[in-house]
Records
---
Amino acid sequence: MEPLDRVLKPKTKRAKRLLEKREPKLTENTKNAMLIKGGNANLTVTGVLKDIYALKKPFAVLYKKKNITRPFEDQTSLEFFSKKSDCSLFMFGSHNKKRPNNLIIGCMFDYHVLDMIELGIEKFVSLKEIKNSKCPEGTKPMLIFAGDMFDLSEEYRRLKSLLIDFFRGPTVPYVRLAGLEHVLHFTAMDGKIYMRSYKVLLKKSGCKIPRIELEDMGPSLDLVMRRTHLASDDLYKLSLKQPKALKPKKKKNISRDVFGTTYGRIHMKKQDLGKLQTRKMKGLRKRPAERMTGDGEGISPKKTKSA
């Protein structure tokens, strides 16, 4: 039998590039997502997966064939697909009598399932049904979360983290105003999660700042939470651990207030203001006699020459 800790050595240059791409990095790549269709998925679930894939492209992989698996009972197939396609996020759609229009969203840690939340689709409006202009492929969306449940409930807090990882897109160093054209709005209210997608329209306002309008472009989803599979606190804390090289070094004598203003404290020796160098002007210069006596007292002014 082969040892479990054997090291795989690439035999071709292509395999070597693939292994280097999957090696641990200080700054991780944009997370890819795989969208998997269950063995008995209906038209509603298939349409949801296609529309989510359209929003997530090009950082997504859509499996068109049906896969007979149950993620809450057996996770080996998901872990296999995750390692095969190098995806750390997944969305699984299925449909049956007990759980109709079922959607499972989850994330991986070291190619093992970390968090997994099951959602039920109660209402769905696809991209094709809304006859408005769409955002181009690969547009980075702005994410908005409304509702106290995203902060009060642990399950909703984990769901919020999953949705942020799923739709956040690549990290960009600069933001262009014209590039802010897609908004994803999630609302938690009355035990349901409402997902809405809008396109940002910049209108003329008569000044430099444009007037902003939101236009519904789809897809639109009404979801309800069902089963959850959450990682333990220790494992979840381990997944959030950052390498020491990325942690910012603490700088001495620098502090920030609640508004983000930076303050610096400077330590200086005691100064003698009498020796402080001021601006040189002819009117401030001392005469030679004043330099001899110090204050210039007892010195008679110069006599004017008589004609």
---
Amino acid sequence: MDLNNLNNYSPSSSSSTPHPSIATTAADPMQSWWESISKARARILSLSSLLHSDPVSSFSLSSLADSDRPALSFLSSFDAYTLLSSALSSSTSGSGPDPLCQWLYDTYLSSDPHLRLIVLSFLPLLLGLYLSRIHSSDSASTPSLAGFEAVLLAIYSSEVKSRAGKPVLVQIPDLSQPSLYHTPRNKQNPHGFDNSRPSVGVLSPPLEPQIAVKSTKRPVIVGVALDCYFKQISQMPSWSKVELCKYASAWAGQDCACKDKLDGGREVEIQNGHGNENNGGYFLEGRSLSNGHDNNEREIDVVEEMEKLEIEGNGTEHSELKGVRIPLPWEILQPLLRLLGHCLLGPLNSQDVKDAASVAVRRLYARGSHDLAPQAILATRSLIQLDKRAREAAKVSATAAVNSSSNANTPSKAKKPEIFLVSK
């Protein structure tokens, strides 16, 4: 995508320069609230004119525009998400003159944070379609995807402006210094001098402004977009998270030529049949890393077994994978693993989200093992172990709750009244 295509995506009146009277309206909360409502209604009604609702369905985007909180009503509406996602999934979507991409572009450039949440909720679908078409086998015949790239550049440029040329740093704990949680094994300097220096790690280097999505800059732009999604993931609907997990599973690749060449049974072990009786489903059992092979251990097709993964014996197979296998540099994999970690371990996530993330993490583990990527192997193995422990703890608590309820419902014999003898 070049700059000429991006110039076609000009912000609408909703995202133009604020009027000089903005200072007076900002001082009036009621006026500001009403302008936000009016802006959200205008954006939703403009989208309604672009989409054709199912005549059989009683759902209409106009009903969301008439609510007290139009943007949040749209964000929490599965029907609205389905309607727009089906239109975006069209084979002709994502081109330069695509009106839906223009709508997403203008909506994200608006100053309303709730409208931006709507655009971010469709980011997994947009990235899935975009990356799948870029890396598909018949990519030579793929039409222009300037529309998708314009939305990604809008999100990226907003983050560049927010970071103001500064890197994202993280403080690395110094284990040689005592804390509330540990006492260092090594003795401190008897003279009382502190020779340790705070260790700082660079989580993300400073971002450079981009006017086009070049192949060399695509991983950085996609990674920044995923990071923006992660910042708002607590407000994302569950169906958007499930969409992300399904595309992550497909990006890892289910038809890897070396999928049966992983470390054998000593690295991971998946129970056959209906899963381990203790676990109630298929799970990767962590073992100590070893390069040795045991004659009694058989190499297993990890990726194929993960396609039949049943979480906690629910007996349902996951739906068909979306997307295709794509390159996963660390710029994309790092924010993707953070997102999957939230989907996997977030206490408020639904079980569908956790199950979809569980499959994605295991597929990424197989991919990392095939690519011999130490960072990917370490991160995915850790998530797998945390997932196993969380499910075991949930099962124990559920069993304890059932036992306590059964004990409460069990009738007990009436106690005889106690008789106390009092001496006079």
